[in-house]
Amino acid sequence: MKENKKDSAKKTWIQYGIFAAIAVVLYATGLHTEVIGFAQRGILATGLMNPDVKEMTVAENTGSDEVAAVDANKTKADFNFDLIDRDGNIVSLKELKGKVIFMNLWATWCPPCVAEMPSIDELHEEMGDEVAFVMLSLDDDFEKAKAFDKRKDYDLPIYTAANGVPRMYHSSAIPTTYVIDTKGNLVMTHNGMADYSHPDFKEFLNSLK
After folding, report:
1. How far is CA 202 from the centre of its chain?
2. By the 8 A CB rule, do 123 and 202 touch?
3. Pairwise CA distance, residues 179 & 181, whole Å
């Protein structure tokens, strides 16, 4: 009986040791972020984390007088913001004014950011010619963001801030996504991950053109 208990305890410690070793390797290589992000995609599949865009889409498609009233209550986006693209070029957000803008604040060390990235990549592939994408990396080292994008074969329009980010885009959590319409209104702010390849969200973006 004692021998069985000793064998059981030994097996338990070996299992803990294996799990600990795996955890150390994942953290040492930075792969823990992607493992957690992969697991969180199961949550995204439920749709519970997605922004509620149905009501916003209806508002955009109402009569002209109602649209004017809705627009009057919207917040104007701050375009006084310069970005640095992957090639080191300075790009002003003002250059994108007049387009629908999808701006996502993310980082390579953020599991929810990694979790939603495939859906953003799918959205970009489908609507990249109609919507301006600004994938704003918050990594201390922009090279990490560029390497991540290349390794994942996303080819997303990634940027880092060239100067201070306007206060209206400050967020206590990432990922955070902002959508700006063609009139320069900030029409959506969503904190947390989401499935942006969902048909409802694509319909919402189309309603802003």
Report:
1. 15
2. yes
3. 7
Mean pLDDT, residues 24-35 taken together: 54
Q: What is the pLDDT of residues 123-166, one digit of tens each?
A: 999 999 999 999 999 999 999 999 999 999 999 999 999 998 99
Share in percent of the chain as helix, strand, coil (round to 5): 50, 20, 35
State pLDDT tens for residues 80-124. Answer: 999 999 999 999 999 999 999 999 999 999 999 999 999 999 999
Helices assigned H by DSSP within 47-198: 54-60, 64-72, 111-127, 142-151
Task: Enter the tokens of residue 42.
Answer: 């199961």
HEC string of the chain equals CHHHHHHHHHHHHHHHHHHHHHHHHHHHHCCHHHHHHHHHHHHHCCCCCCCCCHHHHHHHCCCHHHHHHHHHCCEECCCCCEEEECCCCEEEHHHHCCCEEEEEEECCCCHHHHHHHHHHHHHHHHHCCCEEEEEEECCCCHHHHHHHHHHCCCCCCEEEECCCCCHHHCCCCCCEEEEECCCCEEEEEEECCCCCCCHHHHHHHHHCC
Q: Which two tokens stand for residue 113?
A: 């950011």
pTM: 0.79
- Stated as kind and residue range, the H or E segment containing 101 is strand 100-106
Antiparallel, parallel or unpaired: β 90-92 and 82-85 = antiparallel
DSSP one-letter code for 139 = -
